[in-house]
Design brief:
Layout: E1 3-4, E2 8-12, E3 15-24, H1 29-33, H2 36-46, E4 51-62, E5 68-76, E6 87-91, E7 94-102, H3 108-121, E8 128-131, E9 134-137, E10 140-144, E11 158-164
Length: 168
């Protein structure tokens, strides 16, 4: 059973991160994005860069009918120099609307739709720009607080949806 917390505004500080960027269609997320997770953590271990925060997916470009640009990343204390595969960067400081989803990751699309509808009802100005049929986001994240190593029952996984918004 999926549960959602009430969305709320939150001020966040900048956090260093390491990530792998990819472009995929919506239907390829499971087959092309998820396999990047172990690649990222293997790279971090090989370069002695310990994660200090959760795994995240950052949706830079959303185009449900075309290609999406997605980063698979994690928070780190101090980023290392990246390479052709793994990049260093940050989760920018700013105002975000956050909501926690507890449930199977396959249920995140309806949770995201709920958060976006809540934003429309509450006149939230999301930090995004149109580009053709796509939306380019200043920050649209799914922070995965659980995974198979911490919780084998995927219906109990906690995911924070964290979307950049204009300050109120």
């Amino acid at each position: 059973m999926t549960t959602l917390t009430t969305p709320r505004f939150e001020q966040r500080t900048e956090q260093a991160c390491m990530f792998i960027r990819t472009e995929v269609s919506m239907g390829e997320i499971g087959t092309k994005v998820v396999p990047l997770i172990p690649q990222l953590f293997e790279w971090l271990q090989a370069h002695d860069v310990p994660p200090v925060g959760p795994l995240f997916f950052r949706y830079n470009v959303i185009d449900m009918a075309g290609l999406m640009e997605i980063d698979v990343g994690t928070i780190v204390r101090k980023p290392a120099a990246g390479d052709a595969r793994v990049q260093s960067g940050s989760v920018p400081a700013g105002t975000y609307v956050t909501m926690r989803h507890t449930g199977h990751p396959e249920e995140l699309m309806p949770a995201t739709a709920f958060l976006l509808a809540w934003g429309q009802q509450h006149n939230v100005a999301w930090r995004k720009q149109p580009r053709g049929n796509a939306e380019v986001w200043a920050g649209r994240y799914e922070f995965y607080l659980d995974g198979p190593d911490t919780e084998p029952d995927m219906s109990k996984w906690r995911t924070d949806l964290v979307f950049a918004a204009e300050p109120r």
